[in-house]
Amino acid sequence: MNQAFLSLKTLHTFGAEAFGREIHFIRSEDDLQVFFGMDPTSYYILGGGSNILPVQTIDRVILRNEIKGREIIHEDEESVTVRIAGGEDWDEFVQWALDQGWSGMENLSLIPGTVGAAPVQNIGAYGVELKDFFIRLEGVLLTEGKAMVLNKEACRFGYRDSVFKQELSGNFFITRVQLRLNKKFKPQLSYGNIAERLKEKNITHPDARAVSGVVREIRRSKLPDVGVLGSAGSFFKNPVVDIDTYERILVLTPEVPHYPAKEGYVKIPAGWLIEQCGWKGRRIGAVGCYEKQALVIVNYGNASGSEILAFAGMIIEDVKSKFSITMTPEVNVWR
Ligand SMILES: Cc1cc2nc3c(=O)[nH]c(=O)nc-3n(C[C@H](O)[C@H](O)[C@H](O)COP(=O)(O)OP(=O)(O)OC[C@H]3O[C@@H](n4cnc5c(N)ncnc54)[C@H](O)[C@@H]3O)c2cc1C
């Protein structure tokens, strides 16, 4: 199962050159045993590499999740519960589920990466998050070599957040995920321009496949194709700010967009903040802020991880000095 393989360039979507000490391809739960009890700062867990930015030579072992398999573990009139291995490709799984006539995940079509990484940041798009149909997951706490099953509450899902980015960060290997999908389609069309696109196509009674198709079209028109232009999608999280901060910005810029968050807070789109600071479409060397979506930082050529990180740092500074808001990266920086 082991293979010495030093360059990480083709194993992550930013396309920045980086090196790891060794890469281990994990194809079953048994392959993890070798790492039981190891210091968690001696390895990184890797899925599809679509949400990481390696910034230098990484003196760690890389454990790449390649555990495959899908099974139905429960079925009734309303729903089906599936158990999917963490190394499965997320979008292939979504399309397979749609082919079976199961819905719930159509708004999350075309998100790159693996099923095993999806709970880590509670992936979300167009008003739907993984937590909406999540049941439980299986994994191994590598430090103790302990197999565990975590339910939704234990995963502590939040906005692009979970226990796997907090207490269990870096040492809990997610092996399988269980999700409940609907047999009866309940569309979620209120977010973004899904409804508008369906109307343009004269689709008045869309099924889940039609919604997925429209989501794919919108994403293709707005986001870079990582096969052509390196990126990790949204580089920053949308900042959640308290009402006082929001009202202060409102006085300066009455058109500030915002979305509801937890009580007493609102979410402000990071892309808007970045645009207001003049970064949209701006480029320094081989790094740039994508011209169609300011939230996305792109690698136009041979930018290094450090150059990409420095570029992100300049954006953070500008937003902080103009709005007194400190944006945080959604991308996981590997050092
Ligand atoms: C063009 C583009 C568009 C995107 N759009 C969206 C979007 O709409 N919504 C969204 O939420 N995200 C989006 N993303 C981000 C990314 O697709 C998701 O975060 C995805 O879940 C990452 O999966 P991955 O397998 O590539 O994870 P990786 O990048 O390999 O890893 C991400 C993190 O998860 C950890 N990890 C990976 N696998 C496991 C595992 N099995 N067990 C424990 N930890 C693990 C890694 O250590 C790392 O910290 C986008 C990315 C790109 C490039």
Task: Please outline the helices and strands.
Elements: E1 2-3, E2 20-26, E3 43-46, E4 52-54, E5 58-65, E6 70-75, E7 79-85, H1 90-99, E8 124-125, E9 128-129, E10 134-141, E11 146-151, H2 152-155, E12 172-182, H3 194-200, H4 208-222, E13 230-234, E14 240-242, H5 243-252, E15 259-260, E16 265-267, H6 270-276, E17 283-284, E18 287-289, E19 296-299, H7 305-323, E20 332-334
Parallel strand pairs: 2-5, 3-5, 4-20
Antiparallel strand pairs: 1-2, 6-7, 7-12, 8-9, 10-11, 10-12, 13-19, 14-16, 15-16, 17-18, 18-19
The chain binds flavin-adenine dinucleotide.
Flavin-adenine dinucleotide is lined by residues 13, 44-52, 65, 86, 111-114, 116-118, 120-121, 123-125, 164, 172-174, 223, 226, 231-233, 332.
Number of continuous helical runs = 7
- Would you identify the CATH architecture of the largest domain? 2-Layer Sandwich
**What general form does the structure show?**
globular
**How are helices and strands ordered from N to C?**
EEEEEEEHEEEEHEHHEEHEEHEEEHE
Q: How many DSSP E strands? A: 20
Task: Characterize the structure shown.
It contains 7 helices and 20 strands. It is globular. The strands form 6 sheets. It has a 5-stranded antiparallel sheet. Strands 1-2-5-3 form a 4-stranded mixed sheet, with no helix packed on it. With 335 residues, the chain is of the alpha+beta class. The protein has 3 domains: 2-65, 2-Layer Sandwich (Uridine Diphospho-n-acetylenolpyruvylglucosamine Reductase, domain 2), CATH 3.30.43.10; 70-182, 2-Layer Sandwich (Uridine Diphospho-n-acetylenolpyruvylglucosamine Reductase, domain 3); 230-334, UDP-N-acetylenolpyruvoylglucosamine reductase, C-terminal domain (Uridine Diphospho-n-acetylenolpyruvylglucosamine Reductase, domain 1). It has helices at 90-99, 152-155, 194-200, 208-222, 243-252, 270-276, 305-323, and strands at residues 2-3, 20-26, 43-46, 52-54, 58-65, 70-75, 79-85, 124-125, 128-129, 134-141, 146-151, 172-182, 230-234, 240-242, 259-260, 265-267, 283-284, 287-289, 296-299, 332-334.
